[in-house]
Amino acid sequence: MCSVKMQMKGKSSIYRLSAILASSIVLLWTPLQAQNIFMPENPLEGRIVFEQKGCITCHAIKGEGGDVGPDLGDRKFYGSFLELASIMWNHLPSMLGQMRELELPFPEFSKTEMVELTAYLYYLRYLGDPGNLYRGKVLAKEKKCLNCHAIAGKGGKIGPPFDKLAKYISPLYLAQALWNHGPSMEKKLKEMGLERPVFKRGEIVDLSAYIRAAGKGGKRQRVYMSPGNPQNGAKVFREKGCFDCHSVNGEGADIGPDLSEAEWGYSITEIAGLMWNHGAAMASTMNEKSIKWPKFTGGEMADVIAYIYFLQFKDPPGSAEAGRNLFTEKGCAQCHGTDARGGEIGPDLSESTALLSAFNMVQIMWNHAPVMEERISEKTLEWPEFTGQQMRDLYAFLYSLQEHKSDN
Amino acid sequence: MEISRRDFLRLLGVTATGATVGALGAGTVFSIPEHLFQRISDGPKIESWKTSVCSLCPGGCGIRVRLIDGIPVRITGNPLHPINRGAICPLAEAGIEMLYHPKRLKNPLKRSGARGENKWQEISWEEALQTVSERLNNLFRNNRNNAFHVFSQNYNNYQNYFLEEFMFSFGSENHHVENRIAQWALPVLASQGWNRVPAYDLLNSDCILNFGADVLDTEPSPVRYNQIYGALRNPGNNRRTDIIHFGAQLSRTAAMSSQWIPTRPGTMACLALSIAYIMIRDRSYDKGFVRNSTFGFKDWTDSEGITHKGFESLVTGNYYPERVSKICGVPAEKIVKTARRFAAAEKALAFGGEQAVNSPNGFYTSWAIYCLNALKGNLDKPGGVLFPSPVFEPPVSEKSPAYDFLKRNNFEEIIGNVLAKKPEVADTILFNRFNPVFNMPARKNWHQVLQNIPFIISYTSFIDDTSRFADLVLPAPFFLEDLDLYKTVPSIEFNHLTVQQPVVDPLYNTRGLGDILILLAKQTDLNDFKWKSYEQFVKSNAESIYLSGEGSIISESTDRSWIEFLKRRGWQPFAYSTFDEFWDVLLEKGGWWNPIYPDGNTKRIFRNKSGKFEFFSQTLYDYFSNDKGRAEEEFNLAFVPHYDPPAFLQENKVFPYSLIVFPQLSNYNGTGSRSGLVQELSAIYSREFWNSWVEIDPYTAGEFGLNDGDGIALISATGRIPVRVKIVPTLMPGVLAMPLGQGHEIPGEEKIGQNPMEIVDKEIDSVSGAYSLISTRVRIEKISSELS
Description:
The complex is a heterodimer.
Chain A: E1 30-32, E2 37-39, H1 46-52, H2 55-58, E3 60-61, E4 64-65, H3 81-90, H4 92-101, H5 111-124, H6 133-142, E5 150-151, E6 154-155, H7 171-180, H8 182-192, H9 203-214, H10 230-239, E7 247-248, E8 251-252, H11 268-277, H12 279-288, H13 300-310, H14 320-329, H15 332-336, H16 358-367, H17 369-378, H18 388-407
Antiparallel strand pairs in A: 1-2, 3-4, 5-6, 7-8
Chain B: H1 5-11, H2 16-19, H3 34-42, E1 47-53, E2 62-68, E3 71-77, H4 90-93, H5 95-99, E4 109-111, E5 120-122, H6 125-141, E6 148-152, H7 159-170, E7 175-177, H8 182-192, E8 199-200, E9 207-211, H9 222-233, E10 242-247, H10 252-255, E11 259-262, H11 268-282, H12 287-293, E12 294-295, E13 300-301, E14 307-308, H13 311-318, H14 321-328, H15 332-344, E15 348-352, H16 354-357, H17 362-376, E16 385-386, H18 396-399, H19 411-419, E17 428-432, H20 436-439, H21 443-452, E18 455-460, E19 472-475, E20 484-486, E21 495-500, H22 513-523, H23 534-548, E22 552-553, H24 560-568, H25 579-589, E23 591-594, E24 613-614, H26 618-623, H27 628-633, H28 635-638, E25 657-662, H29 676-682, E26 693-696, H30 698-704, E27 711-716, E28 720-727, E29 735-739, E30 776-783
Helix pairs in contact in B: 6-22, 7-22, 8-17, 11-13, 11-14, 11-15, 11-17, 14-15
């Protein structure tokens, strides 16, 4: 079995001089050597590619953009990089047809652009939805928040007034405040004989929307926050001692679950809600082991959640054997030769830079799609569709060619 | 490698032969300081780029300046800037030429000859500022604070706010800010109490009625509007927006419209009200909006029991198309057809500009046009008139008369007082990059005005038609050398802020106005003027945006919908841990914007007594309530939009033709006249390079036996100028049109072309105080000499 090694380095700056120069800029992602996980610094940067390559002409995000293709903001979660890549690949025949009809140029991507675009699409689900203040009002009552906290002069005086949070537009501020005062709140709740509130899916967002609307003093100043820097999140994760309980890809303790194996197809605030909900059990375990409760400041919680969310961007390894079979079954061999060493039409893939990383493979596959479409239409073949797992297998096969080559 | 003068000029994008245009009589165009040659000769030839904003017109275009070893060599558009999206006009391109212009002022100057002679003695900054502070101290000690006047042009920059703060501290109310688009704001103030220029959502409109706004050549933002018109007229635009342009001349803006309807100057109020007539008669106006959200549409009775005619009665009783057609020259059926097209469009808007509103009845014209939007019910709606929230202006803007649309612009009153030799009115005047002698009508009057003022200071980068009369000239840095902030350009639908960052150290011994004022404040003991440096003021204003968390620094991915998507979820597209980090990125990218249109109740746009759109303006009524005579005499008409036939339309046998003056994109109001590039481009279609011309219709030309290029004298009641003729079929008969921007008169410099302001009559709109540019009557005399 081969290991998937994707070499990326950290971006020296969020801000590139110009997107036009993107293709000439070295892909700068930080390798987290210990885990072989690669994190973008600002996944929102892929929006530039989305706009500049014209994806927005056909696809909307939550209603804003073209209506030729599906709205990409509607999809819940696209899965790992290669799962996402398989969706993009499979939509190519219809996309090429539509683009011909609309006389649009085919968008080729550099590797940087491909990574940024896919990271951006992966990130969309994470950004969540706006809250509903009416639901939030009901929740504040149901969860008995106002027994301890006041809002606009009404409510309890045990905890700090919610008005202080009214200026924060991002619901993650509320989630972070909740998290930080979790242990003391737990204690108070016990004293008062109240149950610890549990938050389902978008409830924190709704509660935050209510606090924003009803709280005093939030109208003039508005504080937004960054949805998270996964690279920084990896550092904070380590610094806050999360590895003392959790593991990632096998690294770390096994008190809590391995976070790289959990399903993270949720929004940031949903993940924050899940963290809060397991806070009680976590606090008691930490007490037993005399581990200090980790508190977050500034954008640290967002960064950690972004890091956790991106753990699944990385694909599990595929099967080179299955990939070899696919290579023939899907017709790749017809052009590239049965062993991928070059055929009548296609080049020798063992010599290809496609083998350097899964990102390279997807980028090269994408860019050769128009030519490939022509060739398979001449040969009256069908467009080869792949599932995410098949993409992983295919990459494992292609990567094995490189390994075998170095063996020789 | 040795680098020659020729090599350097090539870097600047010109050939060495382009550096001098002696044959054309303009002398040397480039004068590069020696130390720059040294630097580029010895330097490593490293290219870099800096962002800034072009301030050669008020359009607010973001620019990128290419530098070699830190020396500016070219200006291009900033592709990230939401105003111009990478495009710029020839005037901005000419910025480099003007930076290195040989006539740039290099040191402070003291007058050494008679006033206006253009004879100077160079002095030190210490002496110059000492002279100014002595005068100010003298006024201050004698409680004559208001005898210090400042006249500023208004390019939407923060320097004027700073100056305003200085004037407050000094105790003078006389900071006069020119605003050539006050007429865009006044109707909104009258009907809604909203004291700002609204935004017109042209891009989302299906039908646009443009009453004489040559937006592709002049304010509010010509490059922006060129892009909008380009997008609307693009065959790929599925919306198929109808742009119907009214005006006496087929201007570039009219030519880019779907339809040009020739309309007699000074009659557009009548035309707009006739369109309203059709909408009312057809009952095709937005009845729900008019019923629920307007005041004064129907006849009404005031608290004293007096009944007033409503807008409906006034319009239906006076403006039927057959009558209006005879006044404005538009066929009645065309008025009806246009009105029905406007009424039928799903999204439609009407707006007016200088050819309609810079007239003696300009305010009521602009108001009549604006009322069409209320009838259409398109206020605060996509494709209609928008009202972005005011954004981050220093507190001084709220209380200053300089920013009160009803008080500003009344230069005539000041001039009158000065002419009447009232020294208590004006002792010392500072012209802040403002050239009224060139830009305003009746310039001979100005000559006299300036002779009567005891002390004149000019803050400018070049000696111009006004500064030649100064006693003291303070050399201003060129905009590429100066720091400032530029706020939202009026009429643009999103808020934005652009940094004018100095891209190069000052080439000469110039100083920024802000820092001059700080020194003067120290020397005149203005203790409440708190600023330590102008940079501190600029940064404190930028910091208020940083702290607000609103909007986003412009970047490659700040599409409006995306910012809105993120902001609604509480996310910031980019995070900055400190203001310094924010500031650095702001300089790198060139600006900030907030494309999110405010949510909320439409009531926010009505800031008047009724909380509704007022066809009868209670705001105006209250404003003029002290002016009892006026209120009583003109009660019913003064506070509703109506058409006053201007006197200039009466039959005039001595001066049978109307003269309109028009702007040109490449020269704005004469700012670019010193540039060879501008001179070569401005006459690209008239072929009268480095010269002026007057446009005349073939019928009138035939009457005088005129051919293209023949000379005529244009004679008005105010003056006479010789000029060459350009015969065009795109002008209403009886109307002559002449471009603005040529004819600077500075002793010792060759005069290029003629300035039409020489003969434009001094007529103003009584409400706004704005000068009329369309009401001058002229006669023609054929001449054979006087023109080279």
